[in-house]
Amino acid sequence: MDPIGGNEVRSMNGAKDVEFGVEAYQFGEELHSLMSGPPVTGNSFTALLDLPANQAMELLHSQAVDDSPSELRLKGHCVSHQSPYNHTLNWAPAFPSNTALIERSSKYSIFAAADATVDRVGGGGGGQGSPDSSSMPSNSRANVMKVKSEPADSGSNPNSLPHASGPTINEKQMNRKESGKKGKGSSKRGKTTANDNSEEVEKLPYVHVRARRGQATDSHSLAERARREKINVRLKLLQELVPGCNKISGMALVLDEIINHVQFLQRQVEFLSMRLAAVNSPMEFNVDSLFSAGNGSVTDSIFPSVMPLTWPEVQMNSDRQQWQFDYDKSANSALFHSSQRKMEL
Amino acid sequence: MRPPISLEKEFLKKWVMGLQKWSSTSKEMSFLERKKAIKLSADVAMASARNGSTLWSRALIAGASKDPDTNAIVKHVVTGSTAFASLPPPIRLGRRRVCSNKALRKARINHFRRPSRKSAASSIVKRLVKKRTQVIKGLVPGGERIDDESCLIKETLDYVISLRAQVHVMQQIANAAELLNTNNN
């Protein structure tokens, strides 16, 4: 196992970024197809939070309570990582002896995993996040998902752990998140975990912080580190989202790009609203049919009749090709068969 | 990444609601008014599609509610979602003052601090980042009141996703409308 030393491991390669982006924005079934597409990304997040096993051991024995979550995460990552880390399983049996650890681990529904296919499950679990939650919880869920691979492999970690009270350090973050987004998406995450404690499903995952070698492990610095990690993770998600940000390194430039992108989007909204205002002919919306549309394509239900308008010529414009709409071709076509759909302004 | 379809549908519905309200109230509208109406309905629709789960959406709606003209639209569009009734009103100005005091104090302190060789670069970077953060706060609705960096980033994320969905839907409708227009004429 490679010694990491005191450095933070932040070596995210492109694949990892892809995984982040994919996992983070799991809004609905369309993205499941996306999920199956990307390359194996199991290494990604686990590698991100990699630590040699001996460090984990140190932590485990030195600090029973505070570092246990990070411990678990480490284990999870080690295990979910491919071959090099399988031998870390040998210290798995140590875990159950630490009851505090167990209790804490039960907190994260990660340990309910039975799925050995870590990567996909992790991705899939993250993927089934709530549609309207921000990407952050999904991403943390991704972290957590990776961890859960460990018990699946090690087997020694009990799957049916009693639900525990929140750990000290991450409690703040947890509460913050929870108050904001209780029950959001975690329910979906529960789907992938074979063993669901229903309470756990409600709780949101959060970013775990591990004390690296040579770093202070008092609560303040740990909290600080946790906070920084959270920020970094979220920033990475933003990077994923904003096109062209992946190659940029450095916080300031990334923020610059983000600012530009937001301004661009806002300007686009203005421009589009102007375009729409310029439309002369009045259009009325057939509102009832619009609202009666279920989960299927809204436009499909509105436009049963097909008009011979050629929609390909009005395919989505070329603002940013990276945005890859395949929004529902029928929606496109239906929009143009808009005998029933008119907007009155 | 692609905007989620559910979000787009939601947005579309609410937008249509808002637009209908506009059309029912006044028949004659100048071009600019129409544009404003469209944009406003779109923004409010997008914000309400979030159902008050994010700061920016709440701030946006609160901002729109202040203006009596727009208030009607807001109410109309937002009546569907239940979350808003229970939402706390946006943060008072006092907090803003506190924030600015903190910033001032920090600026003053930094002025006196002599950066060591190691941290000279990092202090520059910090300043840059700070500036950028301020800009982002200005862009994201309600961002001014967010102190926590991670919270700000989260809000920005959500805002960007919503904006994208909004732009996407509006583009399609605009294209459809124009196509109709050219076909009919």
From TrEMBL, chain A:
- In which domain of life is the source organism classified? Eukaryota
| Molecular function as annotated in GO | DNA-binding transcription factor activity; protein dimerization activity
Keywords of the record: Nucleus, Transcription, Transcription regulation
Q: Where is this protein primarily located?
A: nucleus
Is Nucleus included in the keywords of this UniProt record? yes
Q: Would you tell me the Gene Ontology cellular component terms? A: nucleus
Entry-linked Pfam families: HLH
Q: Residue spans with biased composition (Basic residues)?
A: 182-191
Q: Show the coiled coil region(s).
A: none
Cellular localisation: Nucleus
Gene3D superfamilies with a match to the protein in the record: Helix-loop-helix DNA-binding domain
Q: Which stretches are tagged as biased composition: Polar residues?
A: 154-172
**Where along the chain is composition biased (Low complexity)?**
130-140
State whether keyword Transcription regulation applies.
yes
Q: Where is this region: Disordered?
A: 122-203
Record-annotated membrane-spanning stretches:
none
Q: Which residues form the BHLH domain?
A: 215-265
Write down what this protein is called. BHLH domain-containing protein
Q: What organism does this protein naturally occur in?
A: Nepenthes gracilis (Slender pitcher plant)
Q: What is the lineage of its organism?
A: Eukaryota, Viridiplantae, Streptophyta, Embryophyta, Tracheophyta
From TrEMBL, chain B:
Protein's cellular compartments? Nucleus
Pfam entry (one): IBH1_N
Is the keyword Iron-sulfur in the record? no
One GO-annotated biological process of the protein: regulation of DNA-templated transcription
Q: Name one GO cellular component term.
A: nucleus
Q: Where is the IBH1-like N-terminal domain?
A: 6-66
Q: Where are the transmembrane segments?
A: none
Q: Which UniProt keywords apply?
A: Nucleus, Transcription, Transcription regulation
Which InterPro entries does this UniProt record tie to the protein? bHLH_AtIBH1-like (IPR044549), IBH1-like (IPR044660), IBH1_N (IPR059002)
Question: In which broad location class does this protein mainly occur, judging by the first location in its UniProt entry?
Answer: nucleus
Q: What is this protein called?
A: IBH1-like N-terminal domain-containing protein
What taxonomic lineage is listed for the species of origin?
Answer: Eukaryota, Viridiplantae, Streptophyta, Embryophyta, Tracheophyta
